Amino acid sequence: MARNYNSYNYGTSPRKLEPEYTPSRKQKTNKPKVKKVQNNIKEKNKEKEQQIFKEQQRKKQQRKVIIYIGIGFLILFAISYRNSQIDEQFSKIQSAQNELAIIQKENEQLKVNIENGSNLNNLEQSAKELLGMQKLSSRQSVYVNLPKVDYIQGTQN
Known about the structure:
Elements lengths: L29 H88 L2 H12 L26
């Protein structure tokens, strides 16, 4: 294109300069651009997948920690519950042993009382006081004579 430098340009806009030659352009195929775009998309997808994977791994770790804490709590609860059961059984055993000791003391006291009360003077005194009994006089005694005959018969042969 030939330029006309002598002509007047009307208006306020400057004229456009055009190069004296136009370079020939090679037409590029869309394949490399598509590959770059696809590679960029794949890289972005990989980054997103890695982020998602890391997030999932972090959530799994959090779940594990929560589960371990829960298991630890359950173990501590079971131990404390078992200790309370042991304490309860121990207190029952202690109270039973205390009752046994009291009963054994009473039993020993009763044995001593029986031994003290079993002599002849104490028996006579309690018979007079409690039951109103008296000693026999000579008038109340009755003697019985029994014949000394053998009443057993032998067997017959």
